Amino acid sequence: MILLAYASNLILAILIFSILYLFREPLKHQLGFLFLAGSMLKFVLFFILFYPVYNMDGNMESVEFATFFIPYSVGLVVETIFAAKLLNNLP
């Protein structure tokens, strides 16, 4: 599941940033909300794909949580840095 966690977070991070980049001009005042919606999408993905598998035994161990949380955190930091640069460069 670790490869799926990294791959899904990478794909979603690229997708979210692409959407932010495409809508940087027409929706420049709503980019923050789009960014937050992307983060919510990642959590929804976790609860649909990963949580049922990790919680099958009734106990989610820290290793299982870290399998999702580490790629999520890395993606979030990278998205935040690029989003901040994008917003700072808007006219």
Automatic annotation (TrEMBL):
Keywords: Membrane, Transmembrane, Transmembrane helix. The keyword Transmembrane applies. The keyword Membrane applies. It comes from the Bacteria. This is Uncharacterized protein. The chain crosses the membrane at residues 6-24, 31-53, 65-87. Pfam families: DUF6168. It comes from Arenibacter certesii. InterPro entries: DUF6168.
